[in-house]
Amino acid sequence: MTDLWRSDRVVRLAPVAAVACSALLPLVQVGLAFSYVGNDVGTGLWSLAATALYLPPHLRHIWYVARARRPPLAGWSLAGMTAVIVGATPLAGNSWPRAYTALGVSFLLVLPAPWSYLGYVAVVAAAAPVAHALGLSWAAAPWLTFSVLAGSAALLLLVWPAAALTRLRTAREVLAQRAVMQERRRIDDDLRHGLGSALESIAARGDRAASKVANGDPAAAAEELTGLAEESRRTLAEARRRVRGYRRPSLRTELETAADLLTAAGVATRLDLPRGGIPDTLAPQARGALRATVTRLLRAGPAGTCTITATVADGQVRLHVRAGDTTETIEVRA
Amino acid sequence: MIRVLIAEDMHMIRSALVALLSMEDDMEVVAEVERGDEVLAAALRVRPDVAVLDIDMPGLDGLSAAEQLSGRLPDCRTLVLTGLSQPGNLLRALKVHVRGFIVKDAPAQTLTDGIRRIARGERVIDPELVAAALETGSSPLTARETEVLRAAASGIRTAQIATQISLSQATVRNYLSNAISKVGGRNRIDAIRISRDAGWL
């Protein structure tokens, strides 16, 4: 349960982390626009203004996609963002093409394939020539391309897993709901066909007893009520059997508990299980036989020892319950 | 004649049990008490052959009372009346030498037969209870974790638990955290509920 809570927290925090990192990169870019070689206060201010315009729609794309949702009117916000980044290119300094990182990421997040890939490749390919045209040397321009590639990869590695986590959680919830529905249907069928008819019979017997009392036949009414009490007990036992059928502990848990119960009852019990493991499930007949044996040993009292050995031969698992001189063998069919 | 002590906190049920056992020729109810912490004193006074104890009683629960009886009056055999809702109690009952463990909704005949068999030295355990106990499994908690969770179940704060069982508060928190994780609870209250339902506390 704690693990589930932790994973739930990770799912909730992952989009926040993706948005925070996506905001950090453009802010570094603005700093460079003020201070990088060939830039001045003017380019810095243009960079600041353009970033203030394109960053909100970009973060909006990240926020929605990281939560596995498509942002509403995403085409329009992407168009606006593209216009701002492309429009600011001649004004915001030679390091501005680094902002193409955000554009490339938004292309991949918003546009459908193959347009998203084409847009991304075009943006990455344009970064170096544009930077060179703005005054960056050919020696430095390829590094800018690398910066766009690495930056976009880092952001996508934050966004896509966050979206995958959200989808996984949603899928898990859907599966859990389906399982609950199936189980409810099964229980409903069980109750209607099994216990339902037994309870109807009890009600009918009650009615018959009441009418016999009303007709002044107490002996017949008493007989009917005695039958009703017996049937009620049988129904209660049946209800318990059914409830037990819904809870199926593993064979290992059942054997360990049996050993604990017997030891607590004064029957020193050893459990020998094969190294290769034992099946998780136990057929109802084998389960019943094991329980009957444990009950018999518990009733027998605090004397002697008991060894429960599980063996696997030819794919067949057998339980050997040895108490005193007698050994009982139970075939386990999973 | 089998001398029987009855401990049951609900007056109507206690009276019904006394009336039921008084109808048997070979049984005599020699004492009836309504609190778990009165069981030992009454048993030492009247020396019954069999003590029939309800599992939930004020003052002291039936299993703790059985433990006291086993230590101070080993000749007195105990039979505990329980519900199927707390199957883990069977393990604890066997550890404190309870000879009989019968569900409360069993027919009256089962109780009288059970008392006779226990008096003869046999052990009486309802197969339904064994099945329920095997399904529930043993308690995943260590003795210390059980002790800390039981103290928390009484409603006292961590600092008081630490003082009560001579541990630091950090250690108590650690034990509580382990217990919550082991029983699959969402928090302390949930862990107490799960453990109580299973009969592990």
Automatic annotation (TrEMBL), chain A:
Which molecular function term from Gene Ontology is one that the record holds? kinase activity
What's the superkingdom here? Bacteria
Q: Does the keyword Transmembrane helix apply?
A: yes
Name the residues that span the membrane.
73-93, 105-128, 140-163
Task: List the keywords (alphabetical).
Answer: Kinase, Membrane, Transferase, Transmembrane, Transmembrane helix
Its recorded name reads: Signal transduction histidine kinase
Source organism:
Nonomuraea fuscirosea
Q: What is the lineage of its organism?
A: Bacteria, Bacillati, Actinomycetota, Actinomycetes, Streptosporangiales
UniProtKB/TrEMBL annotation, chain B:
SUPFAM superfamilies named in the record: C-terminal effector domain of the bipartite response regulators (SSF46894), CheY-like (SSF52172)
**Residue limits of the Response regulatory domain?**
3-119
The domain of life is: Bacteria
One GO MF term attached to the UniProt entry: DNA binding
* GO BP term (any one): regulation of DNA-templated transcription
Modified-residue entries (4-aspartylphosphate), positions: 54
Task: Give the keywords, sorted.
Answer: DNA-binding, Phosphoprotein
Domain HTH luxR-type positions = 134-199
State the InterPro entries in the record.
Answer: CheY-like_superfamily, Sig_transdc_resp-reg_C-effctor, Sig_transdc_resp-reg_receiver, Tscrpt_reg_LuxR_C, WalR-like
Supply the CDD domains for this chain. LuxR_C_like
The record, for PANTHER family, names:
TRANSCRIPTIONAL REGULATORY PROTEIN DESR (PTHR43214:SF42), TWO-COMPONENT RESPONSE REGULATOR (PTHR43214)
Record-given protein name:
LuxR family two component transcriptional regulator
| Native source organism of the sequence | Nonomuraea fuscirosea
